[in-house]
Amino acid sequence: MPLANASSVAIGLYFALLVIASLISFFAYGWDKFRAKRDGRRLSERTLHLIDVFGGWPGGLLARRTFRHKTVKRSYIILFWITVVVHLLAVFAIASLWVRLFSEE
Questions:
Q1: Is residue 26 within 8 Å of 59, Cβ to Cβ?
Q2: Which residue has better confidence, 74 or 102?
């Protein structure tokens, strides 16, 4: 498969993953906020960060603003932005490897 075709497929899959993970993240933050208001069992911060690092960070960012959730705790905010950077670095590393693998053909 030529680089252009392989890259198009990979980019499409990545954006599909990003949309799905963002939707999951958005609803997870919404659920956590709902449970927080009712003193119910909540999702762990670790769970929210894992969803975000695997591509859900745009949905997490939107949910934090929409639901006004997880917007005060400084340690959470810092770790959220670290997950964004880790995600973007991983995407860059994978993309670089992808180009090297397919450009040698």
A1: yes
A2: 74
